[in-house]
Specification:
Order of helices and strands: HHHHHHHEEHHHEEHHHHHH
Radius of gyration: 19 Å
Number of helices: 16
Strand order of the largest sheet: 1-2
Helix content: 40-55%
Number of strands: 4
Strand content: under 5%
């Protein structure tokens, strides 16, 4: 048993009881269902160590089945998902949904318990949408590229992923899109030109002091500060991308991990703490040794201390964090001793 298994079980109970009648989850308990919190609630409930086994009478098993039905039915004919069920325009919600289906299809026990014959097709259509419709358009004009470089000190040749079709790329959607594409086959996908270009986008958009913000590290020659949410999602993506032969220097990651641990230590926001802990714990010495060691960084902070701060945010009565299925799902992932959600096998 892991040290936080009791916290996890209580969190999973909170998520099960927070599910809406339609099968989805809201950002807050009793709020309308949205794709993103539904995906992360399902991802947390799928924990193969302390989560549900394939028992049809268990409330968690029932919640998973209902949630997956809601998600399958929400996919559009073009392969994407909207923000909520009635939203007919595909957008960035496609990235976490694809991430989830890839986890289910990759882990044999989850595949046997929860997958349906149509899930491979759902995943394939979603990945096609991400590649063909989710990326920002290429900047063809040399004049425009030069203006962008002058104003923002960024390279517009690197294409990120957007919140909505036809929009500019940003760090958080780019990070989730890369996870969705790479997680099923890291060795192969890390070497694809689309993914390589996306990784260059994240490198190019990194803030000088470490971390990331929305995607503007500079403005008119002045450095802009990082934010904890963008830094967390970017580090989640980099944890999955570390096997790539083109990775290069780890100095940006070293600065970013230290910076994010400081954000966590000094924050009173449950969302900042749990999301940051999720990212930082992936770089602790035991986990990082699996494929790439970030030398020295993990000794600068205490992952266990950070995890304890996350655990302290749990409501002892409800088992949730901030009365939010969304925040609670990230807390459950952060306190998990297995990395099934980012390194499924």
């Amino acid at each position: 048993m892991g040290i936080y298994d009791k916290n996890l079980l209580n969190a999973l109970d909170f998520l099960t009881l927070s599910q809406n009648l339609d099968g989805g989850w809201g950002y807050r308990r009793d709020g309308m269902s949205y794709t993103e919190p539904t995906v992360f609630a399902l991802l947390a409930l799928l924990n193969p160590t302390v989560g549900i086994k394939a028992n049809s009478s268990d409330p968690r098993f029932i919640a998973l089945q209902k949630g997956l039905v809601w998600l399958r039915q929400g996919q559009h004919s073009d392969g994407g998902w909207g923000v909520f069920f009635e939203d007919g325009v595909s957008n960035w919600m496609t990235y976490p949904a694809t991430w989830l289906f890839n986890v289910i299809l990759k882990i044999p026990s989850l595949f046997a318990a929860y997958s349906k014959p149509e899930d491979s097709g759902i995943r394939d259509r979603a990945e096609s949408w991400i590649i063909e419709r989710g990326r920002e358009a290429a900047v063809e004009s040399e004049t425009l590229a030069a203006q962008i470089r002058k104003l923002f000190s960024i390279d517009s040749g690197f294409r990120g992923w957007s919140w909505g079709m036809g929009e500019a790329g940003w760090v958080i959607p780019t990070s989730m899109a890369l996870i969705a594409l790479v997680i099923s086959n890291p060795k192969a996908m890390n070497e694809s030109e689309v993914v390589k270009n996306g990784k260059e986008y994240l490198r190019d958009r990194a803030c000088p002091v470490g971390g990331w913000n929305v995607g503007n590290p500079w403005m008119l020659g002045k450095a802009l500060p990082p934010t904890p949410d963008a830094t967390s999602f970017a580090l989640l993506a980099w944890r999955l991308l570390l096997d790539a032969s083109d990775f290069g220097s780890t100095s940006q990651l070293q600065k970013s991990i230290t910076l994010l641990s400081d954000f966590i230590t000094n924050s009173n926001s449950d969302q900042t703490i749990v999301l940051g802990t999720l990212a930082v714990r992936l770089f602790d010495e035991n986990a990082a040794s699996l494929n790439f060691m970030i030398n020295g960084v993990t000794r600068q902070f205490g992952p266990d201390n950070i995890s304890r701060k996350t655990a302290k945010g749990q409501d002892l009565v409800s088992g949730g964090w901030a009365n939010s299925a969304y925040t609670t799902a990230f807390a459950a992932l952060a306190l998990s001793d297995t990395r099934y959600f980012i390194q499924p096998a």
